[in-house]
Description:
Number of helices: 7
Order of helices and strands: HHHHHEEEHEHEE
Strand order of the largest sheet: 3-6-4-5
Radius of gyration: 40 Å
Strand content: 5-15%
Distance between the termini: 109 Å
Shape: elongated
Number of strands: 6
Amino acid sequence: MMARLKTRIQTVKTCAILIATGALMGGCSFASDALWPSLTGKDPKGNGKAQTTIPASRAEANRQPTLSPPPPPALGNTNFIPPQVTQGSATGTYVGQRVVQLRGELQRLQSQINQQNTQLQGIRNLTIRHSRNYHTTVGAINSKLQVGTTPGNPALVNQWNVAQASLAQVENDIAQMNTLSNGVASTSTLSAYLLETTRAAYGLSGAIDEDHRQLSILEDEVNRTVVLIDRLLNELSEDISRQSNYLSAERTNLTTMALAIKNGEILGSSLGNRAFASAAPSASGGFAPSPLATPGGVRRPLVVIRFDRPKVQYEQPLYNAVSRALQRRPNAMFDLVAVAPNRGNSARVALAASSSKKNVETVLRSLSDMGLPLDRVRLSALSSNTAQTNEVHLYVR
């Protein structure tokens, strides 16, 4: 009996040892798995910090990426068809004859409206086609500038000329809209006179009930025609206004694009289109003394351009700086200061001052090409004891 009990106890101990050994072996298995390399491509330690950093491309690093200009404003899409003129029977009275005359005048008026409506739809189709041609060309230019190209690329110059021609066609379309608007205004005046004459016919003597019934129908149709002409005139005026604003903005964008083509890299949209309101022009013209110190201390320049070598490439940094300044302060004004080193004899100082003024005029032309209105920039010049070479400073005021 005791021998059997000892045998069972020994068996239980053996099983317990085997189970514990299995658990330990399982733990070693998980631990050893972490030491072997993974075949899945993942980091065996479980963290994903070991990554290769790919530098941004030239296009991704651009602060003002612009692949295409903003879409043109939508044109009206109303088809202005005047209502049908209801025919009436002759009554044999003088008033009845007058109603027939007025009905004929309304039909001639509506025929004129149909012609103007046909002309309007044709102008709209042309404007849409010319705008699409312009956007296609500008998009191709910006796509090439976005990745960088050679300065003054002849292919881009030719495309720019095509874009300018397409924009000139849009301008011609606006001129046709203006001519049509003048014609519609004359039609509106005629329709108002016809409505007044129709209402005055009620006061003619010798009318019968049928005459007044036909006059009532005619007055309603004339009134609806007047409303239609007013809608045509209003929609046409809105189209002209929106297209004119768009044309003005794209002209300045084309000027900025010409500078970008000259440099072989994209700048962005015109700086003038970033301003929400135009500031008053400066009272001072030309070069005038402009102190760089303020009551709070020395002014810090937004941009410093050092002309210490030929062909300084300053346009892109200048554009980015002014663009960011206008984003923060759309009504910002600027001081453009020519700084000349005050070193050497008087002749050398005078020569440096003259050269510095030429540099500031060059920068001013660049700002103008970028679309910044010149009445926002005030020029000044000074000599500096610390300047090593001719410099141009741009300040925000």
